[in-house]
Amino acid sequence: MSIEQFRALVLREEEKKTKAAIETLGLEALPDEDTLVQIDYSTLNFKDALAVTGRGKIVKSWPLVPGIDFAGTVVESSNPHFKAGTKVVLTGWSVGEKYWGGYSQFQRVKSDWLVPLPEGLSTRQAMMVGTAGFTGMLCVNALERAGVSPKSGPVLVTGAAGGVGSVAVAILKKLGYTVTALTGDPAKHDYVATLGAADFADGAQWAESPRPLEGQRWAAAIDTVGSKVLARVLAEMNYGGVVAACGLAGGADLPTTVMPFILRNVNLIGVDSVMLPTPERIMTWKRVVYDLPMQMLEGITATTVSLDEVKSASERMLDGKLKGRVLVDVNAK
Q: Ramachandran region of residue 26, left (φ > 0), alpha (ψ -120 to 50) or beta?
């Protein structure tokens, strides 16, 4: 690999359709930002898959190098806090949507978007966690701040075989919570059980609209799916239950009523990782080191792909054929 010429996955719009192709770029092609990073790894997230395939309106400017996160090493920066050789991680800030992202061997970004890699994590491990795992940790933070403890009762994790769900299950288990998982696919139960799920809630009812209130089942929940699934989660919460919602894999709509909120005192908390202030990012990454069982990372990261394989992996992800985290090795051939 040469710093003068390197490979990147570039999205271009042709006749209102997304074309994804590997291109050879030079540094002059990169954005005019204050920090140049040599990237080791990125990841494939649901949002990335939508962008790469063009199935979702994710891309805000063309052309674009997608990839909403990455980890690597600073090559040069005008910010004295990020000297050459500093290991860094980036998630969010609309990178991979508005701004060029992680599917490149080099990238220029604003130093304000970077977080020094926490002690105890390699760049590979950081991206085995990635935006999805980082978001899972944020969801656990939200439940704890709302007063949910292991003694509160069972916690439901929807989309539990996905990137956010996998990490959330593993963290909750380590912290002593009793976790019930919703996967949508019984074939994924063994995988999620190894992460710490004690039970599974899968059934035909999750494809149907719930009544305004169903039987009370959950003290808390982390939802990555949205739509009818989130509506049923809310309808099944215990009195005073807490739901941390962070995803829309099943749809952006929410066909529910006010009943869970005004009759059962249910709390719905939104969780965003994109515009999260830097101090909370630093704190959350430090928590990941201590609260995510590192020995489980290899199992959670079920797939590693090269830049050339990102497009096909994106299709498989959107078709529900992948589980766990997907690591992108931008330097693999």
A: beta
CA-based max dimension of the chain: 63
- pLDDT tens digits for range 144-198: 999 999 999 999 999 999 889 999 999 999 999 999 999 988 999 999 999 999 9
For 5, the enclosing helix (H) or strand (E) is: none
Domains annotated on the chain, with CATH? 6-117+297-329 (3.90.180.10), 131-270 (3.40.50.720)
Question: Which distant-in-sequence residues (6+ apart) come within 8 Å of 8 by Cβ?
Answer: 22, 23, 25, 65, 103, 104, 105, 307
In 3D, which of 127, 12, 58 has the Cα closest to residue 318?
58
Q: 81 in helix, strand or coil?
A: coil
Neighbours of 189 (CB within 10 A): 17
pTM to 2 decimal places: 0.90
